[in-house]
């Protein structure tokens, strides 16, 4: 059956979206030292308080005040960013709604992370011009500006339609449709149990719901993993080069940077001294962390100690561990192996132009099934192999580079996160012994949220399913 | 020859389940009301299954009662059995269902109507409406009587141009060989109403004495006395069972062999039937892998041997119906008393109505029940209730009462009808409600008694009891939230007795009640209130505490929508003048003419961008007005 894309888009949507809480980065993306995330709506302070740790809660501070503190990931309490948060209570704000403005200092990556956290806690990513639209709808802007607001909305929806269409044709929508089908039959079955309690359909038990919830949870997690990759495409794969002094870290850095056109260089954060460099290695954008340390000292292990290395490694998605072919393995080398255990890692044996002194057997054992690349960076040898290894590592697994469907749209990520939360809630409810129709509330919610991702949230299709799947009636 | 029949405030056409609620509500609200019906012996007649309630529908009955309607009280007086359904599930989906003594049901209802002040019940067939300048003035009957009124409610059920079909036989008729109402349908079309043709059906009835019940399974009522109405104090204890049996291969073969004689497949039936109420031939064709279908045998009353064969709705020829019945275990020697049939009838397209159920075309004209495209006694009664209330209020110069989707199933039903329309007879399902945890059987009074009292349909006495109950619930919830249960021998015994882990340290009583296996009964034992609470209060305390998280979540969603509900749209907004709207949205909105932005967003074909455009346009208009008045 051919599905009319436009028809489906038009049926999308939560009508509550006109007045829900919205968020966006409201400073130009790029090299500015400060980025501001603006959050507007009833839940602005509530969302802020879930993430903000400071002297007082945001709902307790005075309006139009600026507050110093940190943004944390509420799941781990890990500090994500040092911030100043402006609290602006309605109606004396730009949108005439409650607003907070989070001033971030940590560069594009951590700003994005803060934004994702805000979205995860229930805000919706603002559409272009939406703050202005709110301001208008709430009577803040005068009539002369109305027309331009209209244009903006119309243009936005046309664009959204195009994006949505290409998404619909893509793999993402297929995967999501599969997940939804997985849920739909079960949801319909539970509904039949409820609406036709005497009908001789098997009673759906919470165990069956649990199974379905797990399948869908896995599916969403996999999609969110591709979101990670999508994010990497935008933000770069955070990469750290570690190794003892004089093994060739600096040379490695230079050949990566020189071989490849740097995308962005030197975004200094004002609150930390990490300096990042961006390079594009065969389509994989790498964001090289702590390059200043390498450049200035060539000495990260000795100067900062293993603990600091451990910290840098923990922030990285890819570790390049450099060893010296011409020296025996030292305790420091072993320690570096240990601290980078569990990370995606490439072992680089440098200085192969010199005689072999390293115990390759031992290296192979420590590396396990990870890549080991031999290089002679002074002679420019082995760099190709290294770059190929990086590419393979990134484009590994089920995802083929020619057929990438990354979830990269923030709205989609936010919806998927919400769907995941709904599934988690359902699973918790099952574990708490809630009756099946309560669990169903969260399962149906997950089904609807998945539908919103692909622009299909038609309630009627559940009822259609009910009657096509079961033979009901008097 | 026409003559002046009388002057009234409100006239109700029809005395089925919609009509009786409309007439009673209107009269009880002080409007001088005339109820005209084709046949006084068919007041509150149940032409199909002898039962009231069930999932979603049962909750509507409770809502009708909370608003001061009659259906709940009437079935409480006249049922032969009652059961609470879905007791193994959560409170949101529990629902009461009664098997009715359909004859007694009618007699009781008719008596109540006859005894009601301001209400005149009269036999007569309305053929035309009197309309002046798009305002209703009254009605004209077949006998030429002209009755004048300020409001009219049409509740014609399946009588409008009704046509009964059995096999290759078809004739103009209302249900069960009642007179059809033909001219009124044509008249409505003349007035410009868009009509559709729907179809429904009913199974054969058989003589109980010819059933071998030993081959069937008994389906008794509940042991606990039940009632729909909050006011009922007398419970019927002497209940009659229903019986369950099944079709089999032989039945299906027989039906397959005779499909060519089915009007469903010969093209004789043009109306659209409901998917949830398929005929047996439909079931066999669409679900041919199902080896058997359930058949419930339901007595039609205490003083009759007639039994309703639920599950065998059919329009096959009478001789085939005989044979089908006799393939079913227990019915081998059964005697059929009435044959099943299909019935086609006219309905109006419900998007022609305002949320008050008043027609957009003719001021003061309301419609309710099957004429609006629904099916089911409860759906009809719920609409009748609202149409009656709003007709009376219109006459009294008061604003219409509109229940919203988070307030009542009746609100869901009416909003669905008038906003989305329906392409088959509409049945309420719990899955149509987005907030079903809020729309429970148990809290219908908490949701609606206030309204019922405000509009004058709930007595002061009942209202005071209600306020008292509400206070008791709130107090007890507060008390439990502030009470700690200590680790004692008693707490250990009580918890162990229900297989719950004994507490290791003092725990808040409300938290303890949140354990799935713990009920109010145990908490009450461990921390008795000053005065023992009655079971309804205790039930509320338990549900409200136990499901607090879920309820809060749904309330949050309702809150989110509120702002959209409060953005009102003028009745006569010219959508074609709004430049940013998509063409499809313009057409659909012009047809539905929603009264709030929230309703507009539910119209199919209206997308979020259109909603944005609409909001901006409305805001522009508001600004222009304020600027003009400066």
From TrEMBL, chain B:
Keyword terms, alphabetized: Coiled coil, Cytoplasm, FAD, Flavoprotein, NAD, tRNA processing
List of residues binding FAD: 14-19, 126, 181, 370
Keyword flag Cytoplasm: yes
Domain tRNA uridine 5-carboxymethylaminomethyl modification enzyme C-terminal subdomain: 545-616
Pfam families linked to this entry: GIDA (PF01134), GIDA_C_1st (PF21680), SAM_GIDA_C (PF13932)
Cofactor: FAD
Residues the entry annotates as binding NAD(+): 273-287
NAD keyword on record: yes
InterPro entries cross-referenced by the UniProt entry: GIDA_C_N, MnmG, MnmG-rel, MnmG-rel_CS, MnmG_C, MnmG_C_subdom, MnmG_N
Protein's cellular compartments: Cytoplasm
Parts forming coiled coils: 463-490
Highest rank taxon of the organism: Bacteria
PROSITE patterns per the UniProt record, alphabetical: GIDA_1, GIDA_2
Family affiliation: Belongs to the MnmG family.
Listed PANTHER family: GLUCOSE INHIBITED DIVISION PROTEIN A (PTHR11806), PROTEIN MTO1 HOMOLOG, MITOCHONDRIAL (PTHR11806:SF0)
Function in brief: NAD-binding protein involved in the addition of a carboxymethylaminomethyl (cmnm) group at the wobble position (U34) of certain tRNAs, forming tRNA-cmnm(5)s(2)U34.
Complexes and interactors: Homodimer. Heterotetramer of two MnmE and two MnmG subunits.
Protein name per the record: tRNA uridine 5-carboxymethylaminomethyl modification enzyme MnmG
Organism: Evansella tamaricis
């Amino acid at each position: 059956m051919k599905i009319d894309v436009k028809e489906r888009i038009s049926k999308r949507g939560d009508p509550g979206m006109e007045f829900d809480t919205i968020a966006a980065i409201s400073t130009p993306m790029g090299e500015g030292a400060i980025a501001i995330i603006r959050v507007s709506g009833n839940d602005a302070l509530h969302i802020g308080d879930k993430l903000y740790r400071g002297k007082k809660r945001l709902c307790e501070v005075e309006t139009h005040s600026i507050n110093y503190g940190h943004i944390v990931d509420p799941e781990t309490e890990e500090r994500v960013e040092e911030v100043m948060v402006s609290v602006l209570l309605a109606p004396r704000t730009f949108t005439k709604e409650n607003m907070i403005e989070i001033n971030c200092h940590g560069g594009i990556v951590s700003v994005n992370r803060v934004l994702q956290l805000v979205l995860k806690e229930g805000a919706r990513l603002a559409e272009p011009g939406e703050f202005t639209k709110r301001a208008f709808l709430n009577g803040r802007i005068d009539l002369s500006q109305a027309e331009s607001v209209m244009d903006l909305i119309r243009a936005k929806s046309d664009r959204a339609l195009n994006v949505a269409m290409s998404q619909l044709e893509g793999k993402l929508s297929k995967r999501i449709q599969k997940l939804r089908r997985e849920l739909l039959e079960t949801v319909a079955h539970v509904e039949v149990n409820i609406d036709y309690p005497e009908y001789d359909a098997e009673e759906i038990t919470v165990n069956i719901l649990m199974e379905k919830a797990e399948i869908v949870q896995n599916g969403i997690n996999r999609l969110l993993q591709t979101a990670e990759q999508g994010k990497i495409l935008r933000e770069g794969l955070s990469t750290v080069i570690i190794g003892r002094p004089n093994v060739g870290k600096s040379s490695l850095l230079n050949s990566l940077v020189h071989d490849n056109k740097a995308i962005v260089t030197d975004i200094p954060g004002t609150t930390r001294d990490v300096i990042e460099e961006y390079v594009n290695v065969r389509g994989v954008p790498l964001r090289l962390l702590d390059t200043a340390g390498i450049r200035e000292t060539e000495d990260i292990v000795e100067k900062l100690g293993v603990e600091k290395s451990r910290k840098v490694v923990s922030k990285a998605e890819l570790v390049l561990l450099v060893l010296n072919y011409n020296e025996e393995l030292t305790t420091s080398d072993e320690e570096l192996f240990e601290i980078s255990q569990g990370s995606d890692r490439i072992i680089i044996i440098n200085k192969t132009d010199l005689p072999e002194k390293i115990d390759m057997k031992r290296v192979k054992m420590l590396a396990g099934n990870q890549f080991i690349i031999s290089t002679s960076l002074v002679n420019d040898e082995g760099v190709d192999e290294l770059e190929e290894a990086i590419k393979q590592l990134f484009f590994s697994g089920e995802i083929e580079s020619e057929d990438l469907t990354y979830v990269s749209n923030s709205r989609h990520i936010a919806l998927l996160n919400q769907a995941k939360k709904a599934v988690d809630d359902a699973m918790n409810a099952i574990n708490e012994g809630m009756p099946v129709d309560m669990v169903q509330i969260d399962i149906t919610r997950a089904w609807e949220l998945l539908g919103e991702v692909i622009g299909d949230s038609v309630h009627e299709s559940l009822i259609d399913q009910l009657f096509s799947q079961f033979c009901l009636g008097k | 020859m026409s003559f002046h029949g009388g002057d009234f405030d409100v006239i109700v056409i029809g005395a089925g389940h919609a009509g009786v609620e409309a007439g009673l509500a209107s009269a009880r609200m002080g409007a001088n009301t005339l109820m005209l019906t084709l046949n006084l012996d068919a007041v509150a007649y149940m032409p199909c299954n002898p039962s009231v309630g069930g999932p979603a529908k049962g909750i509507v009955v409770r809502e009708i009662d909370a608003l001061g309607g009659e259906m709940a009280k009437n079935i409480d007086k006249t049922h032969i059995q009652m059961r609470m359904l879905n007791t193994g599930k959560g409170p949101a989906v529990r629902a009461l269902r009664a098997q009715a003594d359909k004859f007694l049901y009618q007699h009781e209802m008719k008596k109540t109507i006859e005894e009601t002040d301001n209400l005149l019940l009269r036999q007569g067939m309305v053929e035309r409406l009197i309309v002046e300048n798009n305002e209703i003035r009254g009605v004209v009957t077949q006998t030429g009587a002209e009755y004048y009124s300020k409001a009219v409610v049409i509740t014609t059920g399946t009588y409008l141009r009704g046509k009964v079909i059995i096999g290759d036989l078809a004739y103009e008729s209302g249900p069960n060989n009642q007179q059809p109402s033909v001219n009124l349908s044509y008249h409505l079309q003349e007035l410009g109403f868009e009509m559709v043709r729907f179809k429904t059906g009913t199974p054969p009835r058989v003589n109980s004495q010819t059933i071998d019940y030993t081959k069937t399974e008994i389906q008794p009522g509940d042991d606990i006395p039940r009632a729909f109405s909050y006011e009922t104090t007398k419970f019927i204890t002497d209940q009659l069972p229903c019986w369950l049996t099944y079709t089999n291969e032989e039945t299906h073969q027989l039906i397959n062999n005779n499909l060519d004689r089915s009007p469903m497949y010969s093209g004789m039936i043009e109306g659209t039937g409901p998917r949830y109420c398929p005929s047996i031939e439909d079931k066999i064709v669409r679900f041919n892998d199902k080896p058997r279908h359930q058949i419930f045998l339901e007595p039609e009353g205490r003083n009759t041997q007639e039994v309703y064969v639920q599950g065998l709705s059919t329009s096959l020829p009478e001789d085939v119906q005989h044979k089908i019945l006799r393939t079913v275990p227990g019915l081998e020697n059964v005697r059929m008393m009435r044959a099943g049939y299909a019935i086609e009838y006219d309905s109006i397209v419900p998007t022609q109505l305002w949320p008050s159920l008043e027609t957009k075309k003719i001021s003061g004209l309301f419609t309710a029940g099957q004429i609006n495209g629904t099916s089911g006694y409860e759906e009809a009664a719920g609409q009748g209730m609202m149409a009656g209330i709003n007709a009376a209020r219109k006459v009294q110069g008061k604003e219409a009462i509109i229940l919203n989707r988070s307030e009542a199933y009746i609100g869901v039903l009416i909003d669905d009808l008038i906003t989305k329309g329906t392409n088959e007879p509409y049945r309420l399902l719990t899955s149509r409600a987005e907030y079903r945890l809020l729309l429970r059987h148990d809290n219908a009074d908490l949701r609606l008694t206030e309204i019922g009292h405000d509009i004058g349909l709930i007595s002061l006495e009942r209202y005071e009891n209600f306020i008292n109950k509400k206070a008791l619930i709130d107090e007890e919830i507060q008390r439990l939230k502030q009470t700690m249960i200590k680790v004692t021998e008693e707490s250990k015994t009580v918890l162990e007795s229900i297989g719950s882990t004994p507490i290791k340290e003092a725990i808040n009583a409300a938290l303890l009640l949140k354990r799935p296996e713990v009920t109010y009964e145990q908490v009450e034992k461990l921390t008795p209130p000053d005065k023992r609470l009655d079971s309804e209060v205790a039930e509320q305390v338990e549900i409200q505490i136990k499901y607090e998280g879920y309820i809060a979540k749904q309330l949050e969603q309702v809150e989110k929508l509120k702002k959209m509900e409060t953005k009102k749209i003028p009745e006569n907004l010219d959508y074609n003048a709004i430049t940013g709207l998509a063409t499809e949205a313009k057409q659909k909105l012009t047809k539905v003419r929603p009264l709030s932005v929230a309703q507009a967003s539910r119209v199919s074909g209206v997308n979020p961008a259109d909603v944005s455009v609409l909001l901006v346009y409305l805001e522009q208009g508001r600004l222009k007005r304020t600027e003009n008045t400066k």
